[in-house]
Design a protein that fits this description.
elongated; four-stranded mixed beta sheet; single chain
Length: 152
């Protein structure tokens, strides 16, 4: 079964967030700017929907309160890209557009950088060698003999 995935991200200022994500190179899905939300396409059948916090709070109702991502981490977003260079380029565009960096790691077979958007939502941008994704640990050890590999 094929799914489509568009998590809804509450934002304080839709115009500011829209500009931030466009600076990353992400495009608005044609015809999906609804005034209180906008859908950004990241690939075939997936993307993110930025939703004004006040509107999203009305939709979910009064029995739950939206978390403040600047103070509380209730989740994160991971985006796997095609090359290690793409990790750095995307993270650098994010910082130039106003993101806060949190963590960077390069294990040879995997590279990631974590940043928070202007609202505080954390993104983990990662590249992972396809050998790792295939769980071909012998080939990974041969290609990256000095790397500390995951155990188990």
């Amino acid at each position: 079964m094929a799914y489509q995935f568009y998590p809804h991200i509450p934002v304080a200022d839709l115009a500011r967030s829209w500009a931030f994500y466009e600076a990353l190179g992400w495009s608005v899905a044609r015809g999906l700017d609804e005034g209180h939300s906008v859908m950004l396409e990241l690939g075939e059948n997936f993307g993110v929907t930025l939703v004004e916090r006040a509107y999203m709070q009305r939709v979910i109702g009064g029995d739950q309160e939206l978390a403040d991502p600047g103070r509380t981490v209730s989740g994160g977003y991971a985006l796997v890209v095609d090359t290690p260079e793409e990790v750095d380029a995307l993270a650098e565009r994010a910082v130039a557009a106003g993101a806060t960096t949190h963590r960077a790691e390069d294990a040879g077979y995997m590279r990631n950088r974590v940043f928070a958007d202007p609202d505080g939502h954390r993104w983990n941008i990662a590249w992972v060698d396809p050998l790792v994704m295939e769980r071909n640990w012998d080939a990974v050890k041969e290609k990256y003999p000095e790397a500390a590999l995951p155990q188990g």
